């Protein structure tokens, strides 16, 4: 076998963000760019020799070329075997499952999640460790440091592996196993949910659902699990064919980007009872009832409150974790159940230690991410199956389930406003100005609201004591309302400012307001203190979820 060593010049921009390294396809196609980051990953790991690596991606443009390159580099690095999803396809949660199932050293997942794909879109790569979860900050920092000083990479001479054909192949002394992308994941889902009950619901004539795969990775998973295994009619999965450019759309399951699904569920004469969508790499979920949107924060709270109805969680849950900007609805459920609710920075990597230590069973983020200890990633289809199992148990509508939850716990009105692709310098100026004002805001009154505290969120991991600073500016009001500002760590153009608004309403007679109306006073405070238009020239957000 021939292993070549290629001399390179280091890159200084390979710092992973909230979820791996994301750049434009153009950037990734620069000579040695992908190779440098892959070599940096391999050099940072211990005990690579003879170990197992999981590999797959969301099928976006450049996925196939990248897979072949990574296989040859893995062979050169001395891995014993690579388990590859057929066609180079693995959803993020399915990859997390395979890492755990095969006791792999970790996995490489090729995805830029909800970012647009295609030759002018984005590509991404992330490494998940032996627990199946995203590499912690300490590891991604080490990879970044390595990429900045790397002067060569190693690669076995290219020998294309027939990635579409199931089977075992040899590549320069390494074994490549091409496995079905869905079956192990499906088997895992069957251990958690009552498939018979869900099948009865999906085949009954009084229930109809649509699952929007957004031309991304969950198409094959949706067809196999919902239609073939559970018997839902064949038109249940829409946009189910994965496309390298996602059909030109943003595979982001929210009210703005999943507009086909929204139109179906919100049609005046809609006969669809349940709608769900997932994102590029299959880890996000949006849940809809008929003309009814479930906020991801409420969804987490409702799943937690009802977990005992699901076979996989029948003995109850140990605890909940939510990312800091996620609404405090799950906290109320945790309080009632007498279990802890942890508040972590944005990004799934912060849940890993809590899950591994058994401190939590369920976790989630406001950004359409929900998951549990069954893997170490958020999991879109798992959330959909959870809701289906719940609907089958309760024989009630999505809207009724949510309204009853609000009646019991109160409603956390919640919305996120995103200002996308603003100039980096403008975003930084805005954040600096905001930060400078924070101490002076405490005690200040805005109409009926009084600022109780302000800070830039710092997280101390309760398991390993690691500290993560500057995780978002918080303005906390005495009545529990919150305004949070963060800059995105997944965008690839300029900066994206996220503004998160939350207001709690206990009074059930006030649970029928329009969300933006209920939050209007908070948005007015945002304009006053952050002066977004002054700094960015933007009058309103690009995307409101
Ligand atoms: C966004 C979300 C965050 C999520 C991350 C990765 O990050 O806000 O909650 O964990 O995307 O999700 P940011 O830094 O842009 O706000 V995914 O489905 O893109 O892997
Ligand atoms: Co995703």
Automatic annotation (TrEMBL):
Pfam families: PGM1_C_vert_fung, PGM_PMM_I, PGM_PMM_II, PGM_PMM_III. GO terms for molecular function: metal ion binding; phosphoglucomutase activity. Keywords: Carbohydrate metabolism, Glucose metabolism, Isomerase, Magnesium, Metal-binding, Phosphoprotein. It is an enzyme of class 5 (isomerase). It catalyses: alpha-D-glucose 1-phosphate = alpha-D-glucose 6-phosphate. The keyword Cell division does not apply. Its cofactor is Mg(2+). It comes from the Bacteria. Gene3D superfamilies: Alpha-D-Glucose-1,6-Bisphosphate, subunit A, domain 3 (3.40.120.10), Alpha-D-phosphohexomutase, C-terminal domain (3.30.310.50). GO terms for cellular component: cytosol. InterPro entries: A-D-PHexomutase_a/b/a-I, A-D-PHexomutase_a/b/a-I/II/III, A-D-PHexomutase_a/b/a-II, A-D-PHexomutase_a/b/a-III, A-D-PHexomutase_C_sf, Alpha-D-phosphohexomutase_SF, PGM. Residues 1-20 are annotated as: Disordered. GO terms for biological process: glucose metabolic process. Its EC number is 5.4.2.2. Residues 14-150, 184-288, 297-409 form the Alpha-D-phosphohexomutase alpha/beta/alpha domain. Belongs to the phosphohexose mutase family. PANTHER family: PHOSPHOGLUCOMUTASE, PHOSPHOHEXOMUTASE FAMILY MEMBER. This is phosphoglucomutase (alpha-D-glucose-1,6-bisphosphate-dependent).
């Amino acid at each position: 076998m021939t292993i070549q060593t290629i001399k390179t010049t280091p890159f200084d921009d390979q710092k992973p963000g909230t979820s791996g390294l994301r750049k434009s396809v153009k950037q990734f196609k620069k000579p040695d760019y992908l190779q440098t980051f892959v070599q940096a990953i391999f050099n940072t790991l211990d005990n690579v020799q003879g170990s197992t690596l999981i590999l797959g991606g969301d099928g976006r443009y450049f996925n196939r070329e990248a897979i072949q390159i990574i296989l040859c580099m893995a062979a050169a690095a001395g891995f014993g075997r690579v388990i590859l999803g057929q066609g180079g396809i693995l959803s993020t949660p399915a990859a997390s499952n395979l890492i755990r199932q095969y006791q792999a050293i970790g996995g490489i997942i090729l995805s830029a999640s909800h970012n647009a794909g295609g030759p002018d879109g984005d590509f991404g790569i992330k490494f998940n460790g032996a627990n199946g979860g995203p590499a912690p900050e300490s590891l991604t920092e080490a990879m970044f440091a390595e990429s900045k000083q790397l002067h060569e990479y190693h690669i076995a001479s290219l020998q294309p592996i027939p990635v579409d054909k199931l089977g075992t192949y040899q590549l320069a002394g390494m074994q490549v196993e091409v496995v079905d992308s869905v079956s192990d994941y499906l088997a895992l889902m069957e251990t958690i949910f009552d498939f018979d009950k869900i099948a009865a619901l999906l085949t009954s004539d009084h229930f109809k659902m649509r699952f929007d795969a957004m031309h991304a990775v969950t198409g094959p998973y949706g067809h196999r699990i919902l239609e073939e295994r559970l018997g839902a009619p064949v038109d249940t999965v829409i946009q189910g064919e994965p496309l390298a450019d996602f059909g030109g759309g943003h595979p982001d399951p929210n009210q703005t980007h999943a507009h086909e699904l929204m139109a179906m569920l919100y049609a005046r004469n809609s006969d669809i009872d349940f709608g769900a969508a997932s994102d590029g790499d299959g880890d996000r979920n949006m849940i809809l009832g008929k003309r009814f949107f479930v906020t991801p924060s409420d969804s987490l709270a409702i799943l937690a409150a009802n977990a005992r109805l699901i076979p996989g969680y029948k003995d109850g849950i140990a605890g909940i974790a939510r990312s800091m900007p996620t609404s405090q609805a799950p906290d109320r459920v945790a309080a009632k159940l007498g279990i802890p609710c942890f508040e972590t920075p944005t990004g799934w990597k912060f849940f890993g230690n809590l899950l591994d230590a058994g401190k939590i069973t369920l976790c989630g983020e406001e950004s359409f991410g929900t998951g549990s200890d069954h893997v170490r990633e958020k999991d879109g289809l798992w959330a959909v199956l959870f809701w289906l199992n719940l609907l089958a148990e309760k024989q009630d509508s999505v809207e009724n389930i949510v309204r009853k939850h609000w009646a019991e716990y109160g409603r956390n009105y919640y919305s996120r406003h995103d200002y996308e692709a603003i100039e980096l310098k403008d975003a930084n100026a805005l954040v600096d100005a905001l930060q400078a004002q924070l101490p002076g805001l405490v005690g200040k009154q805005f109409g009926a609201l009084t600022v109780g505290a302000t800070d830039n969120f710092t997280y101390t991991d309760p398991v390993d004591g690691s500290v993560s600073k500057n995780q978002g500016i918080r303005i906390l009001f005495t009545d529990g309302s919150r305004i949070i500002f963060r800059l995105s760590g997944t965008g690839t153009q300029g900066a994206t400012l996220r503004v998160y608004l939350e207001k709690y309403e206990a009074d059930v007679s006030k649970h029928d307001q329009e969300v933006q109306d209920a939050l209007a006073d908070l948005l007015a405070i945002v304009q006053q203190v952050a002066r977004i238009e002054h700094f960015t020239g933007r009058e309103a957000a690009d995307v409101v979820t």
